[in-house]
Amino acid sequence: MDDVISGAGSILMGSLAKTNSVREPASAPRVSSEASDSDERLLIAVGNHQDRAAFNALFSRFSNKIYAMGMKLTRNEQLSHDLVQEAMLTVWQKAPLYDLDRGTAQSWIFTLTRNRCFDILRKMKRQPATVSADDIWPQEGDIDSQLVHEETGTMEVEVSKIESFYGQLPAAQRAVVEQIYIHDRTHEEAAAVLAIPLGTLKSRLRLGVGKLRQMVGTEV
Amino acid sequence: MNIDAKYHPTPEQLEGFAQGSLAPGMNVVISAHVELCSTCRKSISELEEAASEEWLRSAPATRASSINFSAMIDRIVDHPQMKGDDITRNNVPKIHMLDHSVTLPRALAKVASDGLVWNQLAGGINQAMVTLDDQTQCEFLYMKPGSQVPVHKHQGNEVTLVLDGSFEDELGHYKPADFVVRTAKDLHQPASEEGCLCFAVLDSPLTFTKGLARLLNPFIRYRFRRATSAAAY
To answer: How far is B173 from chain A (nearest CA, A)?
Structure first.
């Protein structure tokens, strides 16, 4: 691998010199792997003419970082390895779509990596496959249009229904539920209003609410 | 699509979205807002640049020595590259929901494309829950004209994105693309005069605080557990 890295610069120079489509003075110094302004040219070379040397250079610059992101998020060597492969494959496949309007190459590669990572994590956590990264961050733009198939669901709990259940409670329990839930009184206030002992109020409330929940529960 | 939104995600939410550190449900609702809001789209590009710099600066330059990267490169470059015309700038689908025809942001159109089951809740609210992960409860909400959600508070955070129509609460009036964030300490009572379709994401169940609606609380918690455990199997 290291020989690929150190060789990339000179191989790349050769390939850049051969082509006219790279708008770049021949005398421009070949930038070191740290210089981020070279990433855009490398990416454009990969996109314009499948420049393998340029791809090698991008690979050597980014694969460690992609692997590190994978380890940080998945703590799994195999998944991190898969992430390097999938992210760099996407870089290769989508390089022709890159242009400077999309921001820096490093930001573009970061977003591709983030997106592949999202999909890998989703699979790892067995989350539903409803949305993929490309739906969420769609600047790569390749979603099929979809139509919604609507279903009418069964009715769920409604307040009006609770009100009808509430009417079915024995009068003593209903009076307690009314004080607490409709008039928003405290237990003490409600006991005073109804002129019943606090303990009686609490047991009626427990019974009444229990019955309501039972009635609602059978409907859910 | 650009609508002048008045309410936006918090800076932390936008940053988390750019970094990819949020739960899928939260990503979906922010994605939908960002698609509608050019201000936030610009912020996201900047935050992605910043995140990429941070990534390159902080990630350690180590990797498993067992991996044969040359072989990997060889396999990768065997694949064909995409061309510009491989990308279909597809139309944003217009979908029919209840009695409305609505153009949804892409992420939400995808979410809705699995089919929605609408349930009627208290106060003229229709709800269609969708399961996107095991940390959030996500739902389309349709408030009928003149409807009112019982006063409630949240144990966690709730974000609501307005898609069509409008609703109001004690703090404001919210129109399409508005992104309304409510935290645990907020107690609010949304209402809609003209009717409103929203997408809401909750990171824990809500609690009704008034009247008979309080009796619904155990069931809401039950539904939340059901929604989130459906994702965890």
So the answer is: 26
CA atoms within 13 A on the CB side of A25: 3
Question: What are the C-alpha distances in Å from A130 to residues A146, B15, B16, B152, B227?
Answer: 12, 23, 21, 30, 14
Q: What are the tokens at B28?
A: 């979906």
Is B134's CB within 8 Å of A146's CB?
no
What digits encode the pLDDT tens for the residues B168-218?
A: 988 899 999 999 998 877 777 889 999 999 999 988 765 666 666 666 665
Last residue of a domain, one of A107, A140, A173: A140
CB contact under 8 A, A131 and B28: yes
Q: Is residue A153 part of a domain?
A: no
Contact yes or no for A128 and B211 at CB 8 A: no
For A197, the domain range is 159-219
**What is the token pair recorded at A197?**
């002992």
Domains of chain B: 1-233 (2.60.120.10)
A37 burial type by CB count under 10 A (0-12 exposed, 13-18 middle, 19+ buried)? exposed
Q: Does A149 reside within a domain? A: no
